[in-house]
């Protein structure tokens, strides 16, 4: 437990210094948790690695649990920023979807240790009804629902519930990063993204087969 004197934090004089130190702690904490696991990651080791006192870590994060969850939350915020960088300037909606899929897979392809954090969270904190990655998914999905509604209204996408579209694509993406982590990434991120885009955009049936099924 942190010393009583450390419980209430007083921020350093500069807000930038506070945020910089916080980011440094979260960066190193994510690395240690991914490498060693939650149970084997000691706050003292984290402090020594950064070169600060243990009390400094506790001023930012009063418990190891809060530190871990903050590290997982940071992962998802970083992912959102990566996707935003790729899609915000893209006007064509289908290109936005493709860029978003590619950015998501690319982010976790570069940082497989972040997938490990998401897995550990589910294993260590079963009391949390909604894991961090699901919380972020719920918050971030509305902009994609809006995009698909616009495509449906414009007659460019079939008139199906937008939740069905976002659920299927979301499950494909998360399923891909978890499969890559457990089984190894047998294809490049670019190929995986293109495979998902091709199947989602074009399906697997030929025009003739779709026509036959429609007649049936």
SSE layout and pairing:
Elements: H1 15-36, H2 43-50, H3 54-60, H4 64-87, H5 93-110, H6 112-124, H7 132-153, H8 162-183, H9 189-202, H10 207-215
Overall geometric form: elongated
The appropriate CATH architecture of the largest domain is Orthogonal Bundle
Taken in chain order, the helices and strands follow as HHHHHHHHHH
* Topology-level CATH name of the largest domain: Tetracycline Repressor, domain 2
- Helix tally equals 10
Distance between the termini: 67 Å
Biggest beta sheet attributes:
none
Low-confidence stretches: none
Structural class: mainly alpha
* DSSP strand content: under 5%
Percent helix, as a range, is over 70%
Q: What's the CATH H-level homologous superfamily of the largest domain?
A: Tetracycline Repressor, domain 2
How many domains comprise the coordinates? 2
What is the C-level CATH assignment of the largest domain?
Mainly Alpha
- Give the oligomeric state: single chain
List keywords for this structure.
single chain, Tetracycline Repressor, domain 2, 10 helices, 2 domains, Arc Repressor Mutant, subunit A, mainly alpha, 216 residues
Explain what this protein looks like in three dimensions.
It is a single chain. With 216 residues, the protein is mostly helical. It folds into two domains: 1-62, Homeodomain-like (Arc Repressor Mutant, subunit A); 70-204, Tetracycline Repressor, domain 2 (Orthogonal Bundle), CATH 1.10.357. 74% of the residues lie in helices and 0% in strands. α5 (93-110) runs parallel beside α8 (162-183). The longest helix is centred in the middle third of the chain and has 24 residues, at 64-87. The radius of gyration is 21 Å and the shape is elongated. The termini are far apart. The model has no long low-confidence stretch (mean pLDDT 92).
């Amino acid at each position: 437990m942190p010393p009583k004197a450390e419980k209430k934090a007083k921020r350093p004089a500069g807000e930038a210094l506070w945020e910089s130190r916080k980011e440094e702690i979260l960066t190193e904490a994510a690395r240690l948790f991914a490498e060693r696991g939650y149970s084997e990651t000691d706050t003292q080791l984290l402090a020594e690695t950064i070169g600060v006192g243990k009390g400094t870590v506790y001023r930012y994060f009063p418990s190891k649990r809060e530190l871990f969850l903050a590290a997982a939350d940071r992962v998802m915020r970083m992912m959102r920023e990566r996707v935003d960088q790729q899609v915000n300037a893209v006007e064509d909606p289908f290109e936005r979807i493709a860029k978003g899929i590619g950015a998501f897979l690319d982010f976790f392809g570069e940082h497989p240790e972040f997938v490990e954090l998401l897995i550990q969270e589910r294993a260590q904190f079963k009391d949390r009804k909604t894991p961090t990655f699901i919380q972020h998914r719920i918050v971030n999905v509305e902009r994609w629902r809006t995009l698909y509604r616009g495509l449906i209204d414009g007659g460019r996408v079939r008139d199906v519930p937008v939740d069905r579209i976002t659920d299927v694509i979301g499950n494909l993406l998360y399923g891909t990063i978890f499969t890559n982590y457990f089984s190894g990434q047998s294809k490049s991120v670019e190929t995986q993204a293109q495979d998902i885009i091709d199947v989602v955009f074009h399906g697997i049936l030929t025009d003739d087969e779709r026509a036959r099924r429609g007649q049936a």
